[in-house]
Design brief:
alpha+beta, 2 domains, four-stranded antiparallel β-sheet, elongated, binds zinc ion, F-box domain-containing protein, F-box_dom, F-box-like_dom_sf
């Protein structure tokens, strides 16, 4: 007999099965949940011995969600979107689901997060125990009692005497994941019905930030995206715009001067019972738009909220033509409001010249205007800001050309010291001065889009039912 075959037969003679049951019972608790279930599936003997319960399957699911193909450990980096492949376990329906099927609380609270491998939850074993329910209950109680932070420290980090916050985090992270459920399970168990306060008035804070009603929850979703304006937020990717986007009046991040962060909301359509983005309901209002705002939405003023139906439901019930009509009306509400806003800003920027005239002689409008017109030797009357505001768009554009030329003569745009000072004092005026043409172009673009969808509402129907809008509203990204 060769030494090789001898070692094989030696291995065969000492399988787990050949050990006495007493020893098996001592070994099995040191398996992880995946190995425990696998062992229970090898034969009848282990199936009967281990007798896996729901908690063991949940434990296995929580191990599977940490595997790299489900996104692995997820670090909190607010600058990054969650990748599309990040999935989490729901411990009620026992499924691994994309992260969009959960709310923030279910994923981002420390005890609900995926644990790194070196943390307490990352190293957790199945702690299986033999015997009846009573024996298992006693074991669980003993485990809970022994699982203190001090015991864990002396076991895992015996040489560290003053624990750091990172170690405390490592002790806590991911330990409550067995209580995590998806949005649909929270709906089925009545969680949303209990937690949506339907008696809120204006000005009341709603701490869990969700709105809607028991049968139609509107849940703050996992995504915060930045959009340039409401028409883009409710019709993402519909009309790609290639020009420079106008700056917003208020900005909280310099690199987001032309964009605003919007919360997305998962909403459960009562018609088709699917969770969809709020945009699928064609409501040109939001519970709240900016992440920093508290939601202010008194639903008793919106009592017909439960009659809202998603795009697909409207198309199924009343036909695509009716859906097209509603979508065009929705688009027009958003686009026209934006055009009005841009017009208002274009006009309003001229007020600044009156202020400059009195405070900063260097940028005196009278001087700028006279110098620009000096070649024509026509010392016409200088139009006052109020007169310019009343002019037609074309006439205003021509006068803006004078201001633009003056700025360009100041050397590189915005590099001179006095000009820097001016911009520093009034950043919005800087964006107005440089973004004037962008604002005009954006308004024209939106008007052209409105003309297009009015001529052919099919564009919007196609977008919402089968195109990019369908993708976005199903939250399948
Ligand atoms: Zn579920
Ligand atoms: Zn529906």
């Amino acid at each position: 007999m060769s030494p090789c075959s001898k070692s094989i037969s030696h291995q065969e003679s000492t399988t787990l099965l050949s050990l006495p049951v007493d020893l098996q019972i001592l070994i099995i608790p040191y398996l992880d949940f995946t190995s425990l279930i696998s062992l229970a599936q090898t034969n009848h003997f282990f199936r009967d011995l281990i007798n896996p319960q729901r908690q063991h399957f949940v434990g296995r699911l929580l191990e599977i969600e940490c595997l790299p193909n489900n996104g692995g450990e997820v670090t909190l980096d607010l600058l990054k979107d969650f990748p599309t492949t990040v999935r989490y376990a729901c411990t009620r329906c026992l499924k691994i689901l994309p992260h969009t099927k959960f709310d923030n609380h279910a994923l981002l609270r420390l005890r609900f997060r995926k644990p790194p491998p070196e943390s307490r939850a990352g190293k957790q074993l199945c702690s299986w125990t033999s015997g009846d329910a009573k024996a298992q209950g006693l074991k669980r109680q003993a485990d809970l009692k022994n699982n203190t932070f001090e015991n864990w420290m002396s076991r895992e980090h015996p040489l560290i005497f003053s624990p750091t916050p990172e170690l405390r985090e490592s002790y806590k992270i991911g330990t409550c994941r067995h209580r995590r459920t998806c949005n649909e399970c929270k709906f089925q168990t009545g969680f949303w019905a209990r937690n949506i306060n339907i008696n809120l008035g204006w000005g009341h804070r709603n701490d869990n930030q969700d709105v809607g009603t028991a049968s139609m929850p509107i849940i703050k979703s996992r995504q915060v995206y930045t959009y340039h304006d409401p028409s883009q937020r409710f019709f993402p990717g519909l009309f790609p715009y290639t020009g420079e986007f106008p700056a917003r009046l208020r900005s909280y991040r310099v690199h987001h001067i032309d964009r605003e962060a919007w919360c997305l909301y998962s909403t459960r359509c009562p018609g088709c019972e699917r969770w969809q983005e709020f945009a699928a309901f064609r409501q040109p209002r939001m519970p709240k738009s900016r992440p920093q705002d508290a939601p202010r939405w008194n639903i008793s003023w919106n009592s017909n909220i439960e009659a809202w139906r998603c795009n697909s439901c409207v198309a199924a019930a009343y036909g695509e033509q009716e859906l097209g009509k509603q979508l065009v009306a929705f688009w027009k509400t958003l686009a026209e409001a934006q055009v009005r806003l841009l017009d208002y800003r274009l006009e309003n920027g001229w007020r600044q010249f009156g202020y400059l005239e009195n405070t900063n002689k260097e940028f005196s409008w009278t001087r700028v205007y006279r110098r620009a017109r000096v070649e024509s030797q026509l010392l016409r009357e200088v139009p006052s800001p109020l007169e310019i505001m009343k002019m037609s768009v074309e006439a205003r554009r021509e006068i803006y050309g004078i201001w633009k030329q003056f700025l360009q003569e100041q050397g590189e745009w915005g590099s001179g010291d006095s000009i820097k000072n001016l911009w520093f004092k009034n950043p919005w005026f800087k964006h107005w001065s440089y973004g004037y043409e962008a604002m005009e172009k954006r308004a024209e673009f939106l008007k052209a889009c409105t003309d297009r969808v009015e001529a052919d509402p099919g564009i919007l129907v196609e977008y919402a039912l089968r195109g990019a809008g369908y993708e976005a509203m199903q939250m399948s990204y």
